Prior knowledge:
The chain is an all-alpha fold.
Amino acid sequence: MIEERKKEIDRQIDSCIVREKSLNDKILSVKEQIKDKEELLSSIDTRLEEVGGSIKTFDDKIKRAADDINENENAILASEEEIKTLEKKQHALQKDLRDITEDIVQQLDRDLKETGYSYSERKKTEESVVKSFEELKILLEGRLNIIEDSLELDISDKEEYFRFADSAKSAFKDSIDKLKSIRDYFDKYKSSVPVFIDEFLAPEGIITRKRGIDSEIVKSIEKTASLREKIKKLQGENKTLSLKIEEYRSTLEELKVEQVKMKTQQQALNDSVKSLARNIEDLENQLSENQQEIESCNIRKKEIDVKIKQLEKEEKELFDAEKQLKKELAKLESGISKKNSDLVNKQKSVRGKKAITIKIILRIEKISS
């Protein structure tokens, strides 16, 4: 019976050892899972930091683009106001131009009537001047040819020389007469040009003032065109910036969705790590209980070994006592005839010892069972 109990304890110890190995393997496996998840968490933390930085960057880009759009809108409004001012100025200048043009027409008509200016007379005098210049040119060219021909003559011939001299004198006289005629025509032409024209063209004259107005109108128109071009350019920039903002917002939305997904994954991994940590704690508790059970089994095994040794010792003592009693009984029986007188006492003694022996045997059998 005791041996069976000892074998049962040995089986329990073997089972605990197998269970201990299984628990250690499970703990190692769970720790590996925790390590893998912590590495993944570290990767997610790094990516979350990168995504957070990207979100801030795109937020800043959107803000800067919006600020640029607002700045451009303000510049457009300012340019439009300036255009309105310039257009009002242009209207005023156009009115001044119409007024001064009317003044020019009226003054020109009045002065032409007062001076008796005749276009046909001026044209005729102009043509006469041009014609006289042409005649003078022909005259001079002809005399030049005569001079060139005379250079080839023999000047030793006195008669020929005087003929050449008279010809040259006549040519110069005709030229001088033609120049006088041209001068007369020029004086006549000059007198045909109205003096008031010079007054019109003087720095303080009406034409100069008209040119000043024309110049201001041109400058105003050019400035207006420049402002409209600026507005067009700013509107184009705002359109481009608006498209960029849409792109930035789309990218930003994708980044935020990714951030939410990673945070959800991060939370799930943290929960999983905590669950695995609790699992390890539970396994370690089981391992501790298993080790305690092994220790308890070893203690009981040692107690049984001690008890077995004690019973073996008692059994040996009983065996020795029985052997001794049997010797004494044999000795008593062999000498019974000689000691009849002490038979009764001896028998009582033997019965008593037998009774003791029987008790010891019964006790041994009881312990062995």
